[in-house]
Amino acid sequence: MSKHSTPRRLVAGTGAPATAARLEQLLSERTAELEHARHQTQELFQNMPALSVTTRRGQDGLPIIEDCNRMFPATLGYTRTEIIGRPLGDFYAPASRTAPETQPIDRADERLDGVGRHLLDKYGGVLDTLLYLEPTRARNGAYVGMRATYLDVTEHQREEQRRRDLETRYEAAFAQTLVGVLIVQDGSIVQANAKMAEITGYSPEEQSAFLSLHDMVAEHDRPALADRLLRYGRGERVEGRHVVHIRRKDDVLVPLEIEGGRVLYGGRPAVALVALDISDRIRLLNRLQHTRRLHNIGQLADGVAHSFNNALTAIYGRCEALLDQMSKADPRRHEVEAILKVASDTATLTQRVIAFGHTQPSTPKTLDLNVVVGDTLAVASPLVGQQLSIVTSLEPLLGLVEADAAYLEQALLTLLLHARDRTPVGGVIRVTTANVSADGGSADAPPEGDLVTLAVQDGGPELPSDALATLFEPMQSESGTPAHTGLASVQGLVTRLGGRIAATSSPGQGATITIALPSVAGTAPTQDEREASQPTQQPVLVVEDEDQVRSAVREWLAQAGYRVLEAAGGREALDLLADPKEPVDLILTDVVMPGMNGRQLVEELARTRSELRVIYMSGYPNPVHPFGETDGPTMLQKPFAPRTLLRAVRSVLEADAPASTPPDETPDS
User: Fold this and answer.
1) Contact yes or no for 231/238 (Cβ under 8 A)
2) Is the Cβ–Cβ distance between 543 and 570 less than 8 Å?
3) What angle do CA 30, 33, 37 make, to 5 degrees?
4) Are residues 24 and 72 in the same domain?
5) Domain containing 106 — which CATH number?
6) Which of 366, 399, 461, 464 gives the lowest tally of CB atoms within 10 Å of its CB?
7) Domain total of the chain
8) Checking DSSP bridges between strand 389-393 and strand 365-368, what pairing results, if any?
């Protein structure tokens, strides 16, 4: 035993210090490893790309921030010192301030993964975040705090909100746009807006039920549309707009102007088409072309009327010359007077017919409506036709009205043509005039005082109430032709005259349109002024390219005692008056002449003669001054009678101031 005991003591004596050293070394290594791990964990905590805090349970149970990573203060705008030691709820926006993790907590067993929370930065800005929460515990398992990590999704949320806003705006624009929009995929309509439903008459659901867009398109347009859809689907740029005709639900073809482009719908390629209903545009273009044709016809008629009026003026002159050479008992006098009357009636009829197509200045006079009716029927009877009868019932003691005769004739002719269109073959159109008191007037809401009425009754069917309500509104028929648009003009004319217009209808009585105008005091219509007294010898230059007209005017003036100079054109007139001392008191010139027109002649003469009295003559039927003047030289409308010419000449010569200042505008020749 003794020889073994010594070694044991030696081992024990020498081994204890070695074991302690080894343990100390291991402990030091493990401590260093733990410190390194703690340091790495802290580095990860501080540098993680999210906002993160650790909390402890405060005395009142509220979670108090114990630590935070660098991103938490950097994002919220605080310093680390301003954050540590404060309740977690201080950094929550009001909408999230009552969240469970901000309230006093005794225990926490649940983790939170990606729960939405709103944080509040130092300047009041709100951050959208997703919260990841994990409780922290002591060694004995007791709850001591938590680690809260917030992933900032503010920009993502904003982008998402922008995307939702764009979708909302797109849906609103798609639904409310004033043009039709539809999405076509694989040839079928997959979406259509309300305007497209309005155009086609089909609801969006009904449109989507069609097997193909081509089912709604007119057959003659289908090949071209198929080619367009194919090119749109390939993303090609197709220049210009394309017109297709869609068959509406009521079987009416509607012209649509379409454009398209490639889009994605449901993640798959599709074609978006924008369709504009051009029905109104086509109707307006048709009406414009119709108006242009009428304008061209009017210009042609003006030219014919110019030559015709020149001829009538010559006839006047020859007849007046013959009458001057005949005694009262000459048996041929009656024949010449008959020719003169026919020429006068023809001139009046020509002016009246042409006037219907021209805008005229208003020249109100005291009128007898019975006379207006008679004059208008002379023009209207051929237009109404021989298959209809016009019956008049005119009040013999009709009151007078203040109006422009030409305007009233146009209004009555419009009513007669409207009645003609509604009256069947063999029917009767009735024209009636009457005196009506204000309290018993037949017109709708007539003006106060006595009235004079003019009524036109057709022989057509009864008009329904809705048609009566819109009778005076400008409308277009389905064919694109004007539909009683003239009645709107008649209403405007009557309103300007201080009157009223109304329409009534009853079974078997057709429709009656009644114009009611205020009656004016007086017993006789306005008459022409008396002829001027016999003038003395005064020099008058007559410039007219038509020989017969120039000859007639020369003879009338010479017989009236004037000294007449004559020229067949502007250049000849300038030669006659080349000497500034050559006396001339009046220039009587035609407006439209070859080479130099009347206005150009007056301009040239005004260079050497500061005071010129001028009268223009025109064979064109438009009574508006050809140079656009309202107070310039007098205008004589051909054909005119000798007394009309002499009255105008005397009036101009007796005026205090000359009217020779040439206007600024150049006339159409």
Assistant:
1) yes
2) yes
3) 140
4) no
5) 3.30.450.20
6) 464
7) 5
8) unpaired
CA-to-CA distance for 639 and 542, rounded, in angstroms? 16
Helix and strand element counts for the chain (H, E): 17, 24
pLDDT at residue 667, rounded to an integer: 39
With cut-offs at 50, 70 and 90, classify the pLDDT of residue 77: very high
Residue 155, amino acid: E
| Cα atoms found within 13 Å of the Cα of residue 449, Cβ hemisphere only | 13
C-alpha–C-alpha distance, residues 401 and 451, integer Å: 9
* Average pLDDT, integer, range 443-461: 75
- Let me know whether 543 and 613 are in one domain: yes
Least confident of 23-37, 169-183, 431-445: 431-445
Residues 510 and 374 both lie in one domain: yes
Contact by Cβ (8 Å): 137, 144: yes
Nearest alpha-carbon partner for 584 in 608, 563, 553, 604: 563
What does DSSP assign to residue 667? P
Q: Indicate the pLDDT class of residue 446, thresholds 50, 70 and 90.
A: very low
Report pLDDT digits (tens) over 458-469: 999 988 888 888
Q: Is the pLDDT of residue 432 over 90?
A: yes
Q: How far apart are CA 391 and CA 57, in angstroms?
A: 110
3-state secondary structure 135-193: EEECCCCCEEEEEEEEEECHHHHHHHHHHHHHHHHHHHHHHHCCCEEEEEECCEEEEEC
Would 60 be classed as within a structural domain? yes
- Residue 523: which residues within 8 A CB-CB, separation 6 or more? 400
In this structure, is residue 310 part of a structural domain? no
| Cα–Cα distance, 449 to 436 (Å, whole number) | 9
Range of the domain at 469: 360-518
